[in-house]
Design goal:
Length: 57
């Protein structure tokens, strides 16, 4: 039996891994968000998005 995977099945596996990683990150952020107030602002002239200091409550 060969252990060579088709690119398609490898891509599926990678996609699943990324998906669960993203879900974990989002859950982690939601947890942190309940403890930290993030002051953020959008600088329209520079068209940049900046996150300023994190303040713990």
């Amino acid at each position: 039996m060969e252990l060579v995977q088709s690119p398609y099945s490898m891509a599926n596996k990678t996609e699943e891994n990324l998906e669960s990683e993203v879900i974990n990150l989002v859950e982690q952020l939601l947890l942190e968000e309940s403890m930290i107030v993030v002051h953020e602002y959008i600088d329209l002239k520079e068209e940049t998005y900046n996150v300023t200091d994190y303040i713990e409550e």
